[in-house]
């Protein structure tokens, strides 16, 4: 992009701002999604980027298919509840009681993840759940398969 003044975006589109200081990713993409009680805009941050062009591309992709930014703050529990409701209650498909019970049991075995942000969970967090013991007995292979299946389904649902 040539030097000089940046081209102005249309109202409600969002903005790319350069943050102060010497940073690795100095360009922040912001979107105005709501107003506060004084009717000042409250910005939600989409992300930070190395170049202004990368930020503009991310902003254009967001405006092409906008999504709810607050979903990135969902905990494991909230994501599971939304997934369970969508799959078993709202989909219109019929599932066996055994399928529902296995999903709930797998969720209960992952209790240490319930209150953590889903986007912050990493492979080691999931591995620690598989390696736990209940009453000094390891989790059965069948339950580990149900837990893995639930994690895969939650990942697809989250995307």
Descriptive labels:
single chain; 159 residues; alpha+beta; 2 domains; three-stranded antiparallel sheet; two-stranded antiparallel sheet; 5 helices; 5 strands
Short structural summary:
With 159 residues, the protein is of the alpha+beta class.
Roughly how much helix do the residues carry, as a percent range? 40-55%
Task: Encode the helix/strand succession as letters.
Answer: EEEHHHHEEH
Beta-strand percentage range: 15-25%
Structural class: alpha+beta
Number of helices: 5
Radius of gyration: 21 Å
- Contiguous low-pLDDT stretches (5 residues minimum) are none
Shape assignment:
elongated
For the terminal residues, how far apart are their CA atoms? 32 Å
The total of beta strands comes to 5
Question: What is the residue-mean pLDDT, rounded to a whole number?
Answer: 85
The figure for the number of domains is: 2
Largest sheet: 3 strands, antiparallel
Query: Main sheet: which strands, in order across?
Result: 1-2-3
Q: Helix and strand layout, with pairings?
A:
Layout: E1 15-18, E2 27-35, E3 41-49, H1 52-64, H2 76-90, H3 97-109, H4 123-130, E4 133-134, E5 137-138, H5 141-158
Helix pairs in contact: 3-5
Please provide a written account of the structure.
By secondary structure, the protein is an alpha+beta fold. The protein has 2 domains: 15-70, no CATH class; 74-158. It is 42% helix and 16% strand. It has helices at residues 52-64, 76-90, 97-109, 123-130, 141-158, and strands at residues 15-18, 27-35, 41-49, 133-134, 137-138. The strands form 2 sheets. The chain has a 3-stranded antiparallel β-sheet, with helices on one face. The radius of gyration is 21 Å and the shape is elongated.
């Amino acid at each position: 992009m040539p030097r000089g003044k940046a081209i102005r975006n249309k109202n409600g589109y969002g903005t790319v701002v350069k943050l102060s200081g010497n940073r690795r990713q100095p360009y922040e993409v912001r979107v105005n999604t709501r107003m506060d009680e004084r009717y000042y805009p409250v910005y939600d941050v989409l992300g930070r980027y190395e170049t202004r062009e990368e930020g503009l591309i991310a902003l254009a992709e967001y405006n092409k298919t906008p999504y709810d930014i607050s979903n990135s703050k969902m905990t494991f529990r909230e994501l599971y509840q939304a997934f369970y409701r969508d799959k078993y209650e709202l989909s219109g498909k019929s599932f066996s009681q055994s399928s529902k019970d296995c999903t709930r049991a797998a969720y209960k075995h992952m209790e240490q993840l319930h209150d953590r942000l889903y986007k912050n969970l990493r492979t080691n967090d999931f591995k620690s759940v598989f390696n736990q013991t209940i009453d000094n007995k390891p989790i059965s292979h069948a339950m580990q398969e149900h837990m893995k299946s639930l994690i895969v389904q939650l990942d697809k649902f989250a995307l």
